[in-house]
Design goal:
heterodimer, A: about 120 residues, alpha/beta, Hypothetical Protein Ychn, Chain: A, B: alpha/beta, about 30% helix, globular
């Protein structure tokens, strides 16, 4: 499998997968704020919203999404989970890009990718 | 002997019917397989129920679509293993299986003691823990 590499020394690449809805307790928002903290520390951070996690992107999105955008975190929403919850691309936060599991598979194939599923 | 390295290990401890987690695990596995990679799933907790041979090949009939074909989870997993040319494997945790009486796995499932979990993780380039007991 292809295993591309990215960025320079001293920084890491994080791929954080959020499957919990933003009402599922404080941990969901905390996980997204962890992403903000990592990005502000200079790391490359990507967040993938899946399952109930996509509900954080509905409408204007959870407040954490705006923080993620400010911190230059790339935020993806799983298209299958979006469709399963009768959301549409136009009903999602502008900070979010629709993606699918191939995006996750590609990230996990990167040599230096640190991935966490929450 | 050189140890085989798998591209991805998914440790599946989340209960299978309380959310979409099994669907996500299988979708992610298929995406990795489609890219030419390899995946192992370590099933813990109630996820050990997914590969019981007592399921047969199909789910119970759907009364709204009696002619529809709805494969059982064990059939889906068996098909993925068969189609993967050795790049997809399913491991059932022996302790979790025995605690639940889930001891009749389909023959494609490899059973491992939890004592081998660390070794299994060491045999994967990437490990994701899909948690929730």
């Amino acid at each position: 499998m292809e295993a591309p590499t990215s960025h320079g020394a001293g920084t890491a690449s994080y791929f954080l997968i959020e499957s919990k809805g933003n009402w599922a307790g404080p941990n969901a928002g905390t996980f997204l704020m962890d992403a903000v903290a990592l990005a502000e520390a200079g790391h490359r951070v990507r967040v993938f919203l899946v399952e109930d996690g996509v509900l954080s992107a509905a409408g204007e999105g959870a407040p954490e999404l705006a923080r993620l955008a400010e911190a230059k975190v790339e935020v993806y929403a799983d298209d299958f989970s979006v469709a399963q919850r009768a959301l549409t691309a136009t009903a999602l936060s502008p900070h979010v890009v629709l993606a699918n599991m191939d995006t996750v598979a590609a990230a996990l194939a990167e040599d230096d990718c640190r991935a966490v599923w929450h | 002997m050189k140890r085989r390295m798998w591209d991805l290990l998914l440790i599946l401890t989340a209960p299978p019917h309380s959310g979409d987690v099994v669907t996500s695990a299988l979708r992610l596995s298929q995406a990795v397989l489609d890219r030419g990679g390899s995946v192992r799933i370590w099933a813990c907790g109630y996820s050990t129920m997914l590969t019981q041979d007592t399921f047969g090949d199909t789910k119970l009939p759907n009364t709204r679509n009696p002619k529809g074909h709805y494969p059982s989870p064990s059939a889906v997993i068996q098909r993925m293993i068969a189609d993967s040319d050795g790049r997809f494997a399913w491991i059932g945790c022996t302790a979790c299986s025995e605690e639940r009486g889930a001891v009749h796995h389909v023959p494609q499932v490899r059973q491992r003691s939890p004592e081998r979990l660390a070794l299994t993780m060491a045999g994967a380039r990437q490990t994701l823990y899909l948690g929730g007991a």
